[in-house]
Structures are given as C-alpha cells and as structure tokens.
Specification:
This protein has 167 residues and is mostly helical. It is elongated and about 85 Å long.
Length: 167
C-alpha cells in the first residue's frame, strides 16, 4: 500500500502534467482563434463590443421573476391583518408567518382593528356588500341539503341498476 507522501508526490506529478497539457492546448486554441479573427477581419474591439450586450442574450429577461416571486408580490399587496406591538411590523396572514407571531398560541392578540371579522364578511366587503349571520347560516343549511339530496339520488341510481344500497 502506498504511503501518504507517495500519493502526494503522484498528485503533484499529475498536476504538472495536466498544467503542461492545458498550456499546450490553450496555445493551439489561441492560434486557431487568431487565424479565424484574421480570416473574418475581427479585432479585439469587436469582441469587446459583442460582449457588452448588443447581441441577443439567452435565458429569462431581466426583471422577469418566477412563479414564486409572483406569489410573493401578490401576497405583499394584501392588506395587513396582524401587527407586532413592539416593532410595528405587519403581516397579512398569508405565506410564512414572521418570527414575532409564529409561536403565538392565540394570534387574535395581534389583530389590527377591523381585521377580526370573518372571512366571508371580508370577501363580501371586497365585493361591496355586507353579509349577515342569518345569510351565512342559510347558505350552510342549503349546502347540507344539497349533500343529502345527492346521497338520495345515488341510492336511487344503485337500486335501479339492480344493486342493493348496502353493497
């Protein structure tokens, strides 16, 4: 088995060989580039101009964010719902909660005045109309009735097909 000193010596020898090969290849490449530049009449100034952005760049245009940045922008436009009493920082209630509220057992202590109303009331307020508690209860009852009706219809369909409702 080789010792550490022997392996390090081999590494150094291989590194010197790699450097010599790289120098030889780079010399050949530079010669080819110079020949092509002479053939087409290109100068180093032309190369500098071409690298300054006059040509078409690959990839996404500057300022074009990805989907996650679009979501962050949308979340940043929401009105703040919570406020930190110490620092005054606000949070909309969407996305990742900030450190000052993430471990709070009851977030209602941080609510900004007017943000304590229910979600359906907030949605209606955005639409420009108020929603009463009776209206919300009526919608809930009608949803439950629709579910029951759907179940009854499914039972009738299975009976018509000759299957029992149990299996």
């Amino acid at each position: 088995m080789a010792t550490l000193a022997q392996l390090e010596g081999q590494i150094q020898k291989l590194q010197r060989r790699a450097d010599a090969l790289r120098e030889k290849k780079s010399g050949e490449v530079i010669a080819k580039i110079r020949a092509m530049m002479d053939e087409f009449g290109i100068t180093t100034d032309d190369l500098a101009k071409a690298g300054s952005g006059t040509g078409k760049k690959r990839g996404r245009p500057a300022g074009a964010g990805n989907a996650s940045s679009a979501k962050k922008k949308a979340a940043s436009r929401l009105p703040p719902k919570y406020r930190d009493p110490v620092s005054g920082a606000t949070w909309s209630g969407h996305a990742r909660p900030p450190a000052w509220i993430k471990d709070a057992p009851d977030r209602s202590a941080f609510l900004i005045d007017g943000a304590a109303s229910g979600s359906s009331a907030r949605k209606s307020a955005r639409r420009g109309r108020a929603v009463s508690a009776a209206s919300r209860a009526g919608r809930t009852a009608s949803k439950k009735a629709a579910k029951r009706t759907g179940r009854k219809t499914a039972k009738k369909a299975t009976r018509k097909n000759g299957r029992s409702a149990a299996g």
